[in-house]
Amino acid sequence: MYRTHTCGELRINDVGQEVTLSGWIQAIRNLGGMTFITLRDRYGLTQLVFDENTSDELISRVANLGREYVIKVTGKVIERSSKNAKMPTGEIEIIASELFVLNKSDIPPFTIEDETDGGDELRMKYRYLDLRRNPVRENLELRHKMGQEIRKFLDGERFMEIETPYLIKSTPEGARDFIVPSRMNPGEFYALPQSPQTFKQLLMISGFDKYFQIVKCFRDEDLRADRQPEFTQIDCEMSFVDQEDVLNTFEGLAKHLFYEIKGLTFNEKFPQILYDDAMKYYGSDKPDLRFDMKFSELTEIAQGKGFKVFDSVEYIGGINAKKCAEYSRKKLDELTAFVQKPQVGAKGLVYVKYNLDGTFKSSVDKFFSAEDLKNWADHMNAEPGDLLLVLAGNRNDTLSALNDLRLEMGERLGLRDKNKFAPCWVVDFPLLEWNEEENRYFAKHHPFTSPKEEDINLFDSDPGKMRANAYDFVINGVEIGGGSIRIFKTELQQKMFEILGIPKKEAEEKFGFLLNAFKYGAPPHGGIAFGFDRWCSVFGGSESIRDYIAFPKNNSGRDVMIDSPSDVGEKQLNELLLKVMKK
Ligand code: ASP
Questions:
Q1: How far is CA 548 from CA 175, 231, 472, 532, 542, in A?
Q2: How far is the CA of 528 from the centre of ligand 1 (A)?
Q3: Of ligand 1's atoms, which has the minimum distance to the CA of residue 217?
Q4: At the topology level of CATH, where does 139-268+531-575 sit?
Q5: I need a surface site. Which of 79, 379, 437, 476 has the fewest CB within 10 A?
């Protein structure tokens, strides 16, 4: 028998018991007459002692042990003289009488402790060792628990988990496909699914009514911060539902997870913010609602006073940083430098200090009287002691820069506490998005998203104005999920392809199976997909989804542990009728 208990299990009540433990050696401390070993497994740490009563033979074997050796130890549980309150097993230790080395270990390339000396690249190369560390293991435990609770909740709502294939053809999420050559059909390729979108719609046509799947999706994108080429979605679809039904159901899922995982109860309905309002007040379709600091538009009241920078622009707007009128010159300079960073893109920053004594001090005192500035302050609900930060330029770029500035101020003022959660829905997204480069519309969500009933008449006159039955789920400024009510009639779907400039023939080739299926009694349906990795990372309070993936890829899409992607041999290429061009 390898063990009677785990390394996280024994307590003061177990004193006197003879036990056997197996695990890895985390640390060995030799204090002259006494040797202490910390033994680790998934469940915790237990201290082993070898003292003057230990046989010489055993002592000599202990002397040959090293870090990460796998050992089996038998001994008696005794009360510790110097207790460690930080360790769940810290009141006891095992006085060892027998010890077997189950396996040796090379010296690990980094310390396997909560705080490690290993850099990112090294830890990824030896990810199996990194995964022995508590914080990393705990992340995967959180992910496991999330997965279990999601299944429990959705099963309770009568959703069926159904698998869909990975070897398919192009899907419509707008990224590049990963492709897989087919040996049996040389010269032809599968695509890996960017999502199971078309299959889940087909399942609705099959009558399954409520489907979900925790599923891998593949998108060959340049890996901007915190993306992975393969990631996991909680993919869901329902029949005979409208937007409100879908939101209610998945608000239920979110509340279940908040409660089970974070112990948080939300009694109110989650706020639903119109896409247009999200852009107007937060400059983002994923607003961080942990704090207020909404934008106020000043275009009308700030123009026409002779300040050239303002007079020629499309949009002037600002945020009110409460109680920040005391900001020093240095801090204001920092903020100016921040908004001028290329990623933020503003030309400059105008500030107005609404001093506690009711006077104003601004960077534009030359052009605006105290009365003008009071007017701005009133418009922005400012009180004495507040600081107004104002940007100007073309509308979209300025809204986006103001969003960055708002988040930066939120950060500086400690308003973005990772233990506070502010979920919301963003609804009524535009159906289409104009692409200047390609001179055509793209689907803002995907081409199966239905326009709002009342906007369908705009198809021919003003398609850009059409709103979609599409929604996103956002927590703390992070997009956690998105979905839509779908088009379920062939004619409307064809019209959609037309407006997206997808020729009939191409639509037929790519999605003919779906258009065909629509002819056989497709029910009204809609759904949503959540980024599972991301949801875990937000609940875990981390910025990075990689922390929640057992074996993630690096920023160049490489797995440095197994060294992939890699070359394949000539033979394999020949079988596939493939030739690699010189890189
Ligand atoms: N398939 C969509 C996506 O991956 C989600 C959905 O519309 O259900 O974003």
A1: 23, 11, 22, 9, 9
A2: 6
A3: 4
A4: BirA Bifunctional Protein; domain 2 (3.30.930)
A5: 437
